[in-house]
Amino acid sequence: MTDTSPPPRIRLLGGFRLDCDSRPVHVVPGVRRLLALLALQETPIERTAAAALLWPDATARRAAACLRSMLWRLVKPSQPLVLSNENMLELGSGVEVDFHRARRLAAVVAARESPSEEGAVTLLKADLLPGWDHDWVQAEQDWWRQARLRALEALSHRLWSSGDRYQAYAAAMAVVRTDPLRESAHRTLVELHIADGNPAAAVRQYATYRTRLRDELGLSPSPQIHDLVRPLLRHV
């Protein structure tokens, strides 16, 4: 008989969550870390390496015992969450992970292609496992932060070109909220305000950026963004 149950889903963006049969499942911290590690890896990992990453302060023997315990405590949905053998671990082939979709989306945008994914801005603006400070998470968090900022900026320009200024503005604002000193995103917002016929909003955006840049780094905005608002200053 064909299994028609929905696949297990792991959410890493915006916080960890596991859904089985379309319902959220409580996951103990050790199992949560194990599933997150396998979801981030996206390729098989040696059991000894996984144990060392997850329990870095334990002896190898103790870490291996903790790993066996966590595997035993895994939820057992109709489709397996983890495939394991004597040496290797990997996420079950049917498990869906939002971060995998987000990485593919960022790559599509970076390749100057138009994304087909609905809610692209929402997916790209989400933080990866916020509040997690493990070393093996932070490397991915740093990569994702830069990848999604570049993707959001490219997506903003693409949406603007296609006439969707609302989503273009949302994408640029997501960049500014993540990196308030990123001038290219502020410049896009200023240009969008000008295109919408809102010179006062454009000047306010510029002034907010200029003040923050001066207060935090002691720097001034570049001539490129200043030239955008200079014709407006005497009229606002």
From TrEMBL:
Segments crossing the lipid bilayer: none
SUPFAM superfamilies: TPR-like
Bacterial transcriptional activator domain sequence ranges: 97-233
InterPro entries: AfsR-DnrI-RedD_regulator, BTAD, TPR-like_helical_dom_sf, WH-like_DNA-bd_sf
Pfam families per record: BTAD
Protein name, as recorded: Transcriptional regulator
Organism (species): Kibdelosporangium persicum
Top-level taxonomy: Bacteria, Bacillati, Actinomycetota, Actinomycetes, Pseudonocardiales
